Amino acid sequence: MIKSLACNTQERTFTQTTGVNEIAEQLSDAAHIFWLDIESPTEEELTLLEQTFHLHPLAIEDVAHVHQRPKIEEYEDFLFLVFHTAGLNSTTGELEIHELEMFVGQNYLITVHERAVVELSEAERRWKRNGTHTHRGIGFLLYCLLDTIVDRYFPIIDMLVDQAEELEEDLFSTIGGTREAHLTLSLLALKKQFLAFRRIATPERDVLNVLTNRDSPFFDEHILLYFRDVHDHMTQVTETLDLYRDQLSIVMDANLSVASNELNKVMRTLTATSIILMFNALVAGIYGMNFEYMPELKWPLGYFGALSLMTVVSLLLVLHFKRLKWL
User: Fold this and answer.
1) What is the pLDDT of residues 203-253, one digit of tens each?
2) Which CATH architecture has domain 260-323?
3) Sequence-separated (6 or more) residues with CB below 8 Å from residue 18
4) Predicted TM-score of the model (pTM)
5) What is the pLDDT of residue 145?
6) Domain range annotation of the chain
7) β strands within the chain, DSSP E
């Protein structure tokens, strides 16, 4: 599906265009900025993009092969960026990351993605709402899109942080049984989500660093201030991810320590019980020896005496182990 939008920077008006061919005819018009969005592109559409906008085949190849790392590549007539959008699945609560490729030329922006991206609609609204900045060229449109993507990271991080803090609070209230096993699995799953988020956030910060510190013929020099603002937000995102990733590691270590402590308690209880039973087995074993000349076998009260001895010594051992807090 192809969607296209044109902006007259002098009149500050926005109009829908019919597609790639109409944009190609007006690319030489410096008074217009064009945004072309393509969802689930076909090979024919990618070929048309390559021919119409004179895009490099290597960049088109990156678009055709998904799961690209966030990056920025500078070609002679355009910039190629790979960014990622993030969201939480409404059913499972798991982190979902989707790839977004961008071609940035002198007066055009092409966005390509496989699935619907809600950030694009918000970026379009921001672009139209701030029509007074359209004279800053294509850089302001790119800023609106990147800033919208990064701003959407914050509520997702807040939700992940809330989950991490809940698990930390549950650490000492879920000792033993299946609840403890569930806590461990939850910690591992949440840490995996933090790592997946960080895997895209760190290179995206590098992309924004390039946009901020490298002069480009496609952007007005004043737009670098806007990119710097997005870079600051991205730095905050990465620092938060690093902080809570380390915090989760600490919680996991504490969980393992608690589990080890509980295991030690169980082993002490089993050891104490074994010692008590070993004495009873000792007494029963001695009096189970069927020697003919064994004086105790002739005692009328020998059986009850043996049971009494077992009971008394067992109680003494129980009291002793309770004093040691083994039981």
Assistant:
1) 999 999 988 887 777 787 788 888 999 999 999 999 988 888 888 888 777
2) Up-down Bundle (1.20)
3) 4
4) 0.76
5) 94
6) 2-259, 260-323
7) 2-8, 13-16, 32-39, 71-74, 79-88, 95-104, 108-113
| Tokens linked to 220 | 């007005």
Q: What is the DSSP string of 231-291?
A: HHHHHHHHHHHHHHHHHHHHHHHHHHHHHHHHHHHHHHHHHHHHHHHHHHHHHHHHTT---
The single-letter DSSP state of residue 106 is S
Asked if residue 185 has pLDDT above 60, the reply is yes
Torsion of CA 98, 115, 231, 126, to 10 degrees: -160
2-259 placed in CATH 3.30.460.10: no
pLDDT at 172: 65
Residue 112 CA to residue 60 CA, distance in Å, equals 10
CA proximity to 152, closest of 234, 251, 31: 234
| Cβ neighbours of residue 274 closer than 8 Å, sequence gap 6 or more | none
Which residue shows structure tokens 């490298």?
Answer: 214
Contacts of 94 (CB under 8 A, 6+ apart): 88, 193
Query: Any residues with CB less than 8 A from the CB of 24 and at least 6 apart, and which?
Result: 52, 53
Measured CA to CA, the distance from residue 64 to residue 23 in angstroms comes to: 22
Residue 255 is predicted with a pLDDT of 75
128-137 tens-digit pLDDT: 888 777 778 8
Q: Could you tell me if residue 282 is left (phi over 0), alpha (psi between -120 and 50 degrees) or otherwise beta?
A: alpha
∠ CA 232-238-243, nearest 5°, is: 125
